[in-house]
Amino acid sequence: MLLATLHQIDPFAIRWGHGGAIDGIRWYGLSYLFGFLLGYLLVRRVVARGISTVRGEQVADLIIFVALGVVIGGRLGYCIFYDSELLVRFSGSFPFWGVLMLNQGGMASHGGMIGGIIASWIYARRWGHRFSHVLDLIAFATPLGLMLGRIANFINGELYGRAAPDGFAFAWKFPREMLTWPADPQRQEDLTQLQPLLDTLAPPQTGIYNQLYTAMDRIRENDAHVIAVIEPLLTPRYPSQLLAALTEGVITMIVLLIVWRKARPPMMIAGAFSICYALMRIFNEFFREPDFGVRGVEALGLAISRGQLLSVGLLALGVIMVLAAIRSKTEPMGGWMGPKPENAVAGSASPEKSGAKTPKPVGDDPPPSSKKRGGRKR
User: Fold this and answer.
1) Domain extents for the chain?
2) Burial degree of 296 (CB within 10 A; 0-12, 13-18, 19+)
3) What pLDDT, in 10s, does the model give residues 144-198?
4) 354 Cβ contact list (under 8 Å, min separation 6)
């Protein structure tokens, strides 16, 4: 078997502390920042070249709304779907509530999508746009953000893959798997073998998890002694995060680019995204190690993970959305390859045809269509 690569990537782009609530700027946080920036640019492209009631100056507000929805929904989704104990866990130190303890689990993509949908609905009602069209814009902006997020997962060494078969040339060993050992009866022997080293790295009274985090830091610092003891105990695994970045991000983006070359009925792009993402996620879960302690279900003789189960529901929703768009009589909207609209503000569309609310006239003068020769209609 070829030797697996040991994961030693530092999750911090910039670090200024150690052991505090905020020790620096993580690649994971930067992935969200650049993901929203790319989303902004993509939506700007659609409203400038396609048919849309959203104007260029409104895109930033839309992205901010959705960003808040994604972050809040993603975190709550993780707590609800994968670790409900965080909802009732409190401590006497900052950040006090388990939901805010981002070092204890991260974000759930399905929860982020739900939060983004709710934020899109609020935005659409607040600014008088068709909700289905706003949903299309956000769906179009999502895949590249997912790609960056999965790359950040790889940098963090989290959401790693299942054990790779002998001879797999691209296997990695992720030290983060040690965090599951204290609760895993099958790894107690390995933990016992590792304990003397851990006691030299941090006092036992600080707790086993503090000792394991210290060991992970030493591995990233290329401590030869620590690596020599721990690396043989680690499992060679698939780099499933990179596979997800390719399938959920790049492939899904290519599909949406092809589908939305020209204007489509509202909700078509959101449905296409839901279908493609769900299929890619179901496929990826065969290579990704399920979160420890999170049970799936047994169906048709197959073990279905929690992520696959949620994706089946998303797949069904996507099919419904596409069928609704096909049956809709609403004028097609969007299209990122269309010519720039002439004689109109970039990103404008007829409110009557698109379903947006018609602005009320300002002042005493009625719209020109209501004027009559010889006087004004009162």
Assistant:
1) 5-163+239-327, 176-233
2) middle
3) 999 999 999 999 999 999 999 988 989 999 999 999 999 999 999 999 999 999 9
4) 51, 52, 53, 129, 130, 133, 330, 331, 333
